[in-house]
Structures are given as C-alpha cells and as structure tokens.
Amino acid sequence: MDYSILKTIWLNNYKSVPKQLTEISKVNGLISAFNANIDAVKKISGHTIEKLIGEHVKNPSSLFEGKNFIEKKEDVFRGLINCFKNGIAEEWIISDINVYHWLEKTFGYDHLQQGGQGGIVANIMAVCGVNPVFVHSASISKKQSELFLDLPNLKSVNEHQEIKKAKDIIRTDDIPLIHYIIEFDKNDYFRFNGERITCPKSNRFIATYDPLNFKLHIDKNFAERITKPDVNYEFIILSGYQMLQETIDKTLKGTDRIDESLKLVNAFKESSNNPIIHFEIASTQDKVIRKYLIDHIATQVESIGYNERELIDILEVIGEPELAKECNTDTGSVNLFRGMLKIFEYTQTPRAQLHMFGLYITLLKKGFKITPLQNRNGMQTAATLAAAKAGTGTLDIKENLLWAHEKTVSETGLNELAALSEFISSHFGTNTILETGIFSTDKFDIIAVPTILIDQPITLVGMGDTISSVSLVAAR
Fold first, then answer.
1. Buried (b) or exposed (e) across 175-190, using 16+ Cβ within 10 A?
2. Tens-level pLDDT at each residue, the chain (476 residues)
3. I need a labelling partner for 280 at 20 to 30 A (CA). Which of 21, 116, 137, 460 fits?
4. Which residues of the chain does CATH 3.30.1110.20 include?
5. What DSSP element (H or E) covers 304?
6. Rounded Cα distance, 40 and 37, in Å
7. Where in the chain is the domain with CATH 3.40.1190.20?
8. CATH classification of 3-34+116-170+212-473 is 3.40.1190.20, yes or no?
9. Domain spanning 41-112+177-208, CATH class
10. Contact 360/352 with Cβ under 8 angstroms?
11. DSSP string, 96-141
12. What gap in Å lies between CA 429 and CA 423, rounded to an integer?
C-alpha cells in the first residue's frame, strides 16, 4: 500500500490520543518505585570526544576491551566510544568515587534534570493527571526535591511517615545521587586510532555513581506508610534494579536486595485492590542479576517493558544465545519479534512491550484485562508524548503533551511494520496489522504501532520509561 495512504490511516488511528489523556486523569493512584536520582546532562560533540581522548588516554589499546563497568577513567571513554559508534544507549556503573570526581571536573554538565526511571515516570504520570502518584526515592536531598514537579498530586513520604507533596519534602541528611548522561548526535563523528567513527543514531552513554541505588535502598518510612489500608493505587511501576551486582559487599548479594523488594511489592499488592504491576527492564550488565530478575520478577508481574538492547540481553540469559546474536546483527522488527516470542514463552508474563526505533510492539495473552484496542490507544498516546519530549525537551508542563499530535508516523516505522506484517502472514496468517496495528491468534494478541520520529531530538533521556508507563496507563 502507498505510504501516503498508510500515513493518513495512522493519522486517523492516532486521533484517540486526546481522549486517552483525559482517561489517564481518572486513574486512582500509582506507585513509581524504586529509583529517583539527579541526571547531569552533557551534550558532547565528536570533536570534543576526540580532544578529551587525546588529553586523557595515554594507551588507546586500553579502550578496546573490558567489562561494561567503570573502574578507571579510560572505561568512561570505552563506553562512550561503544555507544557513539553503534548509536546505542547503555548505562555503566562507576565503582570508584575518584573517577566520579574526575568525570565531574572534566566533562561538567549543561543542566540537571529528574533522573531514574522511578523519578521520570512519577513526573510524567503527575503531569498526565494521575491522582495521586506516590514516588519512592532513596534520597530526597534539596537538589532531588527541586526536580520533583510542583504538583499537588505528586507525593512521597517524609521522615515522620507523613504523605506530603514530593516537592515539599527535604531530608536534610540525604546525599545527592547524580548520574552523568553524555548525549551525542546522529551523523557526528570523530577520529580514533586511525578510524573515522560516525554516529548512526542520536543516543547517550550513562556513567553512574550512586551508592544508595547501587544497593536498591528502600526507604523504610515510605514502605511502611504506603502499605497502610488508607492508601490505594491501580498501578505499580517497578524499576531501578539495573545497577545491582551479584556481590555488593562481603555480606550482601544483589539477589538478596531483589528478594527484599519483592516482599514490599507483595505487601503493596495485598494492601490495594489488585493493582497492575509493570516491570521496566533496564540495561542490566550483571548477568546473574539479569537472569534473577527475569526468573523472579518478570514471572511475577502483569507487564514488562524493554528496548532492543535489553531484549538481546534477556535472550542471552534465557538460553537463546544464537537468536540474541541474530538480533544483535539485524535489529529489525522481525528478529526482535522472534525474540519477543521466546521471552513471552519463557516468562509467561501476560503483557510484554518492546519499544524499538520507529515501532512499538506489544504481546498480550488472550483475556488480559486490557483489550488490544485499548493497548493500541495507549501505545499511540505514548508515541505522541515521546515525540513531544524529543521535540520540546521536556514534558514538565501539560501544554507540551500534545505538541506532536497530528504529526504523521515515520516511514521508518512503517517499513518495520510492513516487515513484521509479512512475517506474521507467513507464520500466523493473513493480517491487516499494517493498517490496524492489531492481529489476534488463539493464544495471544499482537499490537504494533509505528511511531512519530523527531529528526533532531533535544533529548532522549527517559524516553523508554515514558513510553512504557504511558502505553500501559493510557490503555483505558
């Protein structure tokens, strides 16, 4: 079908978005846990990268191999080069505070903004009108407090176990938790070791030193107050596990912290009226932790979300290394959908969503409480808000939410959807998913939505968190 016709069809499909935003405001409560932090954002050019490598790296060969972990300053450049060269996003943990101080001094930052999946989701849910939104934060220093939006429906718990507007809470003994987000642009380049390295896709590299979220610290006052019977919520959005390591210290393992969090999640479930729990699977470098998360959290919740890289990482630990390699070589919709099917089968999670470049795909078990059409409407709402965030730089004000409404979907997304449609035809039967975004089998439903892409995004930070949370909560 001619793409101009398809764009018109999808423009009509997307007309549901304003209504879905109205529906979101009817949601009666949401918990966003566990990680909120401060993002120090730095936009960097290829020229600057080249200059800094020349100034700070004495042995270029040190940048070719190593774990996805930062123990010395060279590791920062190694991670940055990897993400720049491949146009991907990754988060690496800094183990040495001296490296953190060097990064602060050498790179600096352009501005501070709300960080951590938990903090980002809380802010966007509050702007969308969910009332109330309860945000967990391991630390609420003055700097952290200033990044929570000044909205009466965005709440947390103070040291006296009082529920207050998050903006009004300052725990004076808490330390700021700052993550460095180094962003770069598509088509920018630099020269390294005799090679011209060109960035294929705008993205970012995150270098994190965060001693509380490293341990998935849970605030006791929040845990005790939010499980009281007078607090209700329809959704729980879980995130923040990606920084855990198999061994945290001599007496504590990362799996212990996961188990401890699950006790609290079960208490949340028991204290409210059957909330839908979504687990956002971020880039988790430790394979033991990654496998444990899939086996012990993804199998216990109603919904999971991941991007291309995270899907590949999951395949690696559930016994699908060959498919992981295929997806890594060709990250198109067909290979990624094949990966989704394997993960769907392994975890048995009722709802799973992939957000890839240009296309979102969701798998729903038959009979799930959210219908395929509701899910498509939620995904379209998420795509609109994600484009608005990319185009305006912020969703901190309600007026920005519909900035991208009535913009057409991308040809990149339609190409990926067309390829997926052909795959579905050959394996499951004739379909109209290219026009409707929905196809049903006897066991599950497939929902796929081409997205609105912004050529020169102002920011991509928190995009996946926005997409996953809005897709689910707006599916009403």
1. eebbbbbbbbbeebbb
2. 789 999 999 999 999 999 999 999 999 999 999 999 999 999 999 999 999 999 999 888 889 889 888 999 999 999 999 999 999 988 898 888 899 889 989 999 998 999 999 999 999 999 999 999 999 999 999 999 999 999 999 999 999 999 999 999 999 888 888 899 999 999 999 999 889 999 999 999 999 889 899 999 999 999 999 999 999 999 999 999 998 999 998 899 999 999 999 999 999 998 887 899 999 998 898 999 999 999 999 999 999 999 999 999 999 999 999 999 999 999 999 999 999 999 999 999 999 999 999 999 999 999 999 999 999 999 999 999 999 999 999 999 999 999 999 999 999 999 999 999 999 999 999 999 999 999 999 999 999 999 999 988 888 778 898 999 999 999 99
3. 21
4. 41-112+177-208
5. strand 303-307
6. 10
7. 3-34+116-170+212-473
8. yes
9. alpha beta
10. no
11. -HHHHHHHHHHH--SEEEEESHHHHHHHHHHHHT-S-EEE--S---
12. 9
- Three-state DSSP at 400 gives helix
Sequence-distant (6+) residues with CB within 8 A of 107 are 42, 44, 52, 180, 182
Place of tokens 């401890």: 260
β-pairing, 351-356 vs 359-365, is antiparallel
